[in-house]
Design brief:
Elements lengths: L2 E5 L5 H11 L8 H9 L6 E6 L2 E14 L5 E12 L8 H16 L3 E5 L12 E12 H4 L15 E5 L1 H16 L10 H7 L14 E6 L5 E9 L3 E2 L3 E2 L1 E10 L2 H13 L3 E5 L19 E14 L2 H7 L6 E8 L7 E8 L2 E6 L6 E4 H7 L6 H6 L3 E3 L4 H9 L12
Parallel strand pairs: 4-5, 12-13, 15-18
Antiparallel strand pairs: 1-2, 2-3, 3-4, 5-14, 6-13, 6-14, 7-8, 8-9, 9-12, 10-11, 15-16, 16-17, 18-19
The structure holds acetyl coenzyme *A.
The site of acetyl coenzyme *A has 22 residues, from strand 4, helix 3 and strand 5.
């Protein structure tokens, strides 16, 4: 089999899109207009394909992204997406080949991490990725929640207000609000203009069906837009006259916990809504505790979500903040060589330094474990108990465990 791996050209692009649809098991429906539109915002230099007798059989794309790390700073990330290999060509190393090309380019460019949402858990660990942010979805049994249906939301004491708005308003208000979320929540990834156009129904691929959602913004007492929720409702009735509607939230972002509280209570207060599906939230989301009976929020999904791969150890570890003080020498094993080495991390609440060292190592770990730890969402002690972090100096696990932890869980609200 003579295969041609290459960077995709404009003339390759329609067949490349066809191959993506094949890999993701969906009917190929892209129109000429859609293909032309996608080309306007696709950096072809970062689109790879493998061709067999002129036909695309493998796809891979990356794009520039900013990732918020612990403490609110952002680092440049190499966001990987649309990874597919045709079922006729799987398990011949095509993904491995495309991944190596992309990660080498990302490292060369100066990206600090690579990021992706893994379709299946077993795929990406071998490339040095690890799950760095998990996600939880709840279903709220509204009648059980104990909220008072006679009260307006927000109540008068709040002083703020909620307005139903349209997609134009969301595109106007959303980016600034999202910037404020990103500044306070590690794990958040940047949303470019395309994200807003797609999520408000302006640019929807032909393979997807668009249903116009409801959008509501929360303005605090001083008029600042502090929150935005997007939800859709079904039309289920029991006995023909008993409303049993479910509201499914596709996005709820807020700049303050007070705004989160008002918006969740608002969705639960909509007449006819008896069930609320929350969409992807952080595992430690405040949501259940906004309800008088937190047990009314039942976990329906809990899973790994954002996977990271560290490309630059010193920059990944110095960009974040640290709540305690410790110096630890990490021996990083990385079969690809991208980050292998021994690094002295000297961290304190005042800042951190991290650089290659010849000192003896305190802890040994793989690149995937480092990725899993870097947003503070996993415990060093747990990884040590699993045999995935080796303690080389007594006490190092305890010290590193306290050091790496973040006050709140990481949260990546987006699929990309
Ligand atoms: C970020 C994203 O886009 S996530 C979406 C990923 N894509 C999909 O899930 C679509 C359906 N699946 C596919 O298209 C393909 O099976 C892919 C892309 C996942 C893998 O492509 P392949 O070319 O078969 O992978 P490749 O041959 O390079 O395999 C590399 C290794 O990963 C392993 N591997 C690949 N996919 C899987 C999987 N789904 N489960 C377990 N192991 C896997 C292979 O066995 C191989 O292992 P080895 O190195 O020990 O021999």
């Amino acid at each position: 089999m003579s295969l041609d791996p290459r960077t995709v050209t404009v003339s390759d692009f329609p067949d490349w899109l066809r191959a993506v649809d094949t890999g993701f098991l969906r009917p190929h429906a892209a129109t000429q207009e859609e293909i032309a539109l996608r080309l306007t915002h696709t950096d072809l230099a970062r689109v790879q394909g493998v061709f067999d007798a002129g036909r695309c059989v493998a796809t891979f794309r990356s794009f520039a992204q900013e990732l918020t790390v612990v403490g609110g700073a952002t680092v440049p990330a190499d966001a990987i997406t649309t990874v597919t290999v045709s079922p006729t060509h799987r398990r011949r190393g095509l993904l491995g080949r495309m991944m190596a090309v992309d990660l080498a380019a990302a490292k060369e460019r100066g990206d600090v991490v690579a990021s992706l949402i893994a379709a299946e858990y077993p795929i990406y660990g071998r490339y040095g990725f690890g799950p760095a942010a998990w996600t939880t979805e709840w279903e709220i049994d509204v009648p059980r929640a104990g909220l008072d249906p006679r009260r307006p939301v927000p109540d008068e004491a709040d002083g703020g207000r909620i307005d139903l708005v349209d997609g134009d308003a969301v595109r106007a208000l959303g980016p600034e609000l999202h910037d404020r979320l990103a500044a306070r929540q590690h794990g958040v990834v940047s949303r470019g203009e395309q994200w807003w156009l797609r999520s408000t129904g302006v640019h929807v691929p032909a393979s997807e069906t668009w249903t116009e959602p409801f959008y509501a913004v929360y303005r605090a007492a001083d008029g600042t837009v502090d929150g935005l929720v997007t939800y859709r409702a079904d039309a289920r009735w029991g006995d023909g006259k008993q409303p049993l509607n479910t509201a499914t939230v596709s996005d709820l972002i807020a700049a303050t916990p007070a705004a989160e509280r008002v918006l969740w209570r608002f969705v639960c207060s909509v007449d006819w809504i008896t069930t609320v599906r929350t969409g992807r939230r952080a595992p430690d989301d405040l949501l259940p505790f906004f309800l008088p009976d937190p047990r009314a929020a039942r976990v329906v999904t809990q899973a790994d979500w954002l996977w990271l791969r560290v490309l630059d150890v010193p920059r990944a570890l110095t960009a974040r903040t640290w709540d305690t003080e410790a110096a630890v020498v990490l021996e990083v094993h990385d079969a690809t060589g991208l980050t292998a080495g021994r690094f002295l991390l000297d961290a304190s609440p005042a800042g951190a330094s991290c650089a290659p060292t010849t000192r003896s190592a305190d802890l040994a770990l793989g690149a995937g474990e480092l990725a899993t730890l870097c947003l503070g969402d996993e415990s060093v002690a747990r990884l040590a108990a699993l045999g995935r972090v080796d303690e080389l100096r007594p006490g190092a696990v305890t010290a590193a465990d306290a050091l790496f932890r973040a006050p709140r869980r990481a949260w990546c609200p987006d699929m990309f």
